[in-house]
Please model this.
Amino acid sequence: MKKINHKLHVNKIKKNGYTIIKNFLSINELSLIKNKIKKIENQKSTVKTGNNIWHLHNYDEIFTNVICKKDIQKILIPLLNDPFYKNINLNLPNYILGESMIIDEKGFMNLHLDSYIPSSSSKLYMANVLFLLDDRSRDNACTILIKNTHRKDSYPDRNKKNYTYLEGKKGDLIIYDSRIWHGRCEAKTNTSNRTLVYIVQSWFIKQRFDYIHLLPKKIFKKLSNLEKQFLGFCSIPPKDNKKIISIRQGYEVLKN
Ligand SMILES: [Fe+2]
Model:
């Protein structure tokens, strides 16, 4: 992998709503991830819908390690960090995971936005991070989007057909603003198109599942403070409403 120009990708996401980083994962990383997935998909307890697998980070720490890579931090920190979060150094992430999954689908998916709320704000608060585990093209159901819709401030017009096709090779990384109108084209071939997908969001957006309680202890123990924070452990809503505490907490709460 070539040295990544983080600033360039930050600006592309701000301006165009998306960016593609070629050859982000090495062949070794890719095969390590694929082997883990092979093991996970055969476990009885794995949460699946069709071929999609949910909550990968609950099965193996590698799925938190990979999304917390320094190169991804350097792109997401300027976009998703809360600049007034005092208890963690602002050079480190204070954004969190919304959801993680493997998508393995061949059917058309209509235009939608994953942020739920359309907004024209210059402040991005949610991003989709896609690791391509197989080659994806317009022939095997790649992601589609409508350019320049990430700051549209309205829900998608599903009559629009001027799609941009987010084609890429296995190992490529795609990041897009979750507000952008996107979907999936229909496959014409039956080739595999698996993608490891993360929704990453500012700390104040509610996580889509109760990951604080769903994360197995044995995985928690293997994570760094940075990774635990990323899973939401520094911004848990307080149970005790009599204690006045900040919900923007630092790594010290992780010692408990
Ligand atoms: Fe989506």
